[in-house]
Amino acid sequence: LAAYKAHPLYQEAIKRVRPLRELRLAADYEITTARAPLAENSRH
Q1: In the chain, which end has fewer C-beta atoms inside a 10 angstrom radius, N or C?
Q2: What are the residue ranges spanned by the domains of the chain?
C-alpha cells in the first residue's frame, strides 16, 4: 500500500480529487422531462 500511495500518478490524482471532496452540487428538474428519452429532451 505504501508503494501504491508513493507512486507519482497516485499523488497527482489525490492532488486533483481532494478539493472536490467537499464540493456539493444540486439540480432542480421536472420529473416528466427527466423520464423522457434524451432525444426528446433536446427538442425543448
Answers
A1: N
A2: 2-41
Q: 3-class SS at 4? A: helix
SS3 25: coil
Sign, CA torsion 15/17/18/20: positive
pTM: 0.45
Segment 1-44, tens digit of pLDDT: 999 999 999 999 999 999 988 888 888 877 777 676 666 655 55
Q: Please answer whether residues 37 and 43 qualify as being in contact, where contact means their C-beta atoms are separated by less than 8 angstroms.
A: no
